[in-house]
Amino acid sequence: MDRSTTRCAYALAMSGGACLWLATAMMSGRTEAWDASSYWTVAYPLAIIWSGWLGYRFPERSWRWGVAVMFAQAGVLMVSSSSYGLLPLGLILFGVLALPTIGLANVMAKLRLRHDVQ
């Protein structure tokens, strides 16, 4: 993957994660999107699916797309938050939430690579 393709993939991952966080927060009226039930039922599953699509589309080191999607949400939280007291715990939670996104991105990348070989 060349440099411009990598930049494009990162931009897609990070903008997707940020948009999911912002849209959920705005639609629910919450400061933190994960305080809304729609984050867990809609936005987070979409983040996992988005990471899987990115892993399929950009299979080289696919784990990074799941990380980028979730930590873009952490970045939006840090910018929009008025208090940083729970930030370390929030970053740990984003790390845990990144595990399924990483997993699906890797599975989809392997499917893509297997498909390309055949």
Count of folded domains: 1
Low-confidence stretches: none
Succession of helices and strands: HHHH
Residue fraction in strands: under 5%
Keywords: Membrane, Transmembrane, Transmembrane helix
Transmembrane segments: 7-27, 39-56, 63-80, 86-109
Describe it.
With 118 residues, the protein is mainly alpha-helical. It has one domain. The chain is built from four helices and no strands. It has helices spanning 3-28, 37-57, 63-80, 87-117. It is elongated. The mean pLDDT is 94. The chain crosses the membrane at residues 7-27, 39-56, 63-80, 86-109. Keywords: Membrane, Transmembrane, Transmembrane helix.
A few lines on this structure:
This protein is mostly helical and 118 residues long. It has helices spanning 3-28, 37-57, 63-80, 87-117.
Write the layout of secondary structure elements.
Layout (H helix, E strand, L loop, with lengths): L2 H26 L8 H21 L5 H18 L6 H31 L1
Helix pairs in contact: 1-2, 1-3, 2-3, 2-4, 3-4
Keywords: Membrane, Transmembrane, Transmembrane helix
Name a few traits of the molecule:
transmembrane; transmembrane helix; membrane; about 120 residues; mainly alpha
